[in-house]
Amino acid sequence: MKIGIVTIYDAYNYGSYLQAYALQKVLKSQGHEVIILNCSKDKFRIIKKLIAKTPAKTFFKLQRYLVYKKAWGDLNIERHKNQVLDAILIGSDEVWNIKNNSFEHWPEYFGYNLNAKKIIAYAPSCGYSLLDDFLNSQFYIDGIKKLDCILVRDENTKLICESLSGSECQKVVDPTLLYFDNWENELVPYKNINDNFLLYYSYNEKPLMLNYIKRFARENDLKIVTAGFKYDWCDENLIVEPKQFLYLMKKAKYVVTTTFHGSVFSVIFKKQFIGFHPNRNPKVHDFLVSVGLDHRTYKANMGFNDFKDILEESIDYTYIHKRLKQRSKQSMILLKNSLS
Description:
It is built from 13 helices and 12 strands. By secondary structure, it is of the alpha/beta class. It has 2 domains: 192 residues, Rossmann fold (3-Layer(aba) Sandwich), CATH 3.40.50; 137 residues, Glycogen Phosphorylase B (Rossmann fold, 3-Layer(aba) Sandwich). The chain has a 7-stranded parallel sheet, with helices on both faces. Strands 10-9-8-11-12 form a 5-stranded parallel sheet, with helices on both faces. The longest helix is centred in the C-terminal third of the chain and has 23 residues.
């Protein structure tokens, strides 16, 4: 089959890139011809993303763009020209988070302007958008109703889609988990760092737990490293390609993250980590609940000792990995069935 993927792949976000990369690899391994569709109408979106408030941050963004430009070469990207395909997969990632203004919202994310025998949503997330946000627009309601199959990533998205479509929607794992056993072979070493560091991966430059992170690092003689962002309080702000980011994940002694994929890769690489408060990030909470690690989240009233205890508490990854691989296998069956 010739399959198109409509997803967020160019958001300067390691998670977005890696989920697109993983879905492409998984589908190719099944013998399909796969393309990632560029549906953007804004020819200058890349340039706009490079502009920052200071020359230093603009230079940082330019360096980051050059790294991602190289990585995009591993994705089979084609301009969307309404070509006829056997199937199109919408997702994964926050393609349905209509309240998130950090990316370009294409109508194609809701099935419009697409020409395929089957249009399937695989593991999309509505993020922090709620049902009421969708009820205000017939555009979203009609788009979701017209899809041939909807397989969602989290409970919030499941609730929204079932309410709008009137049909049951099944939950599946993110594509990065479909590719679970292969990430070790994808690592690209980053030589200019030792193993004694804490990796902070978040869009939040000044998290509530900032002082705790600094204190924990100081007490354990750890460098604080971030990747893909420029935060003055971090010891190192690295610009690395996505597969080097995975290497940093693998090598870090501890991980502090507020992102979904930060939590996913922490689990894949068996890290001591802490996630963000679940009430602020339902998709992270949903994933952590699914693997029995929902207690590993920062809460607003948490003291330093509680923060420290979570980071240092050992995790039985043997059981968790077994559980995730079972879910991945089930999700793969659902994906294959949706394409048949």
